[in-house]
Write a structure and sequence with these properties.
- By secondary structure, the protein is an alpha/beta fold.
- It has one domain: HUPs (Rossmann fold, 3-Layer(aba) Sandwich), CATH 3.40.50.620.
- The chain is built from five helices and five strands.
- It has helices spanning about 25-40, 60-70, 90-100, 115-125, 145-170, and strands spanning about 10-15, 45-50, 80, 105-110, 130-135.
- Helix 1 links the parallel strand 1 (about 10-15) and strand 2 (about 45-50).
- Helix 3 packs across helix 4 (about 115-125) and helix 4 (about 115-125) packs parallel to helix 5.
- The radius of gyration is 16 Å and the shape is globular.
Length: about 170
């Protein structure tokens, strides 16, 4: 079986991560955006969809992500912004209309490796056939990274319940 070329993805959806009170990206956010910039520069992703709202601070994560990509030379017209989501479910729910409006079907989702299983579950349940791009921290397998894997494992059951609830509400038009 022949795999499709990695050069043929319409867009890379970059999931947000914390920013500081001063608007600076966390190491996780900086890693994700740097990897997405590489995907765009190499032609493997035609567009970048920055997804993340104002979680802990008034500045949406997606705005910081967009500014980082533009500062790195990615043309503004190649960057879409979804700036309302506050979690992975919101990332999928709110990026879907942007993706569908453009008819994109070949999609990547860029996030930390430990977050991939949960992100794939949510995006697939929302009807988006994304392929994962796992970003690894330089300190792998540091103590902090093991903690992140444990948090993700604990979050998965709750995410499944919340995703199914959100899908049922959507089916009812709420």
């Amino acid at each position: 079986m022949h795999s499709p070329s990695v050069d043929s993805f319409d867009a890379a959806i970059v999931l947000g991560a914390m920013i500081g009170p001063d608007g600076r990206p966390s190491p996780a956010l900086a890693r994700r955006v740097a990897h997405a910039i590489d995907l765009a520069r190499s032609g493997r992703a035609g567009f970048l969809v920055m997804s993340g709202g104002p979680v802990r601070h008034p500045v949406p994560e997606a705005h910081v992500m967009r500014d980082m990509a533009e500062a790195a030379g990615i043309a503004p017209e190649r960057i879409l912004v979804e700036d309302r989501s506050v979690n992975t479910i919101g990332n999928a729910r709110l990026t879907r209309p942007l993706i569908e409006a453009r008819g994109w079907t070949r999609l990547l989702v860029v996030t930390d490796a430990c977050h991939i299983p949960r992100a794939l579950y949510v995006f697939h349940r929302f009807g988006m056939a994304v392929r994962p791009v796992a970003v690894m921290p330089p300190e792998w397998p540091g103590r902090e990274w093991w903690g992140a894997w444990l948090r993700e494992a604990a979050a998965m059951p709750w995410t499944i319940l919340r995703t199914e609830y959100a899908l049922r509400r959507r089916e009812r038009g709420q």
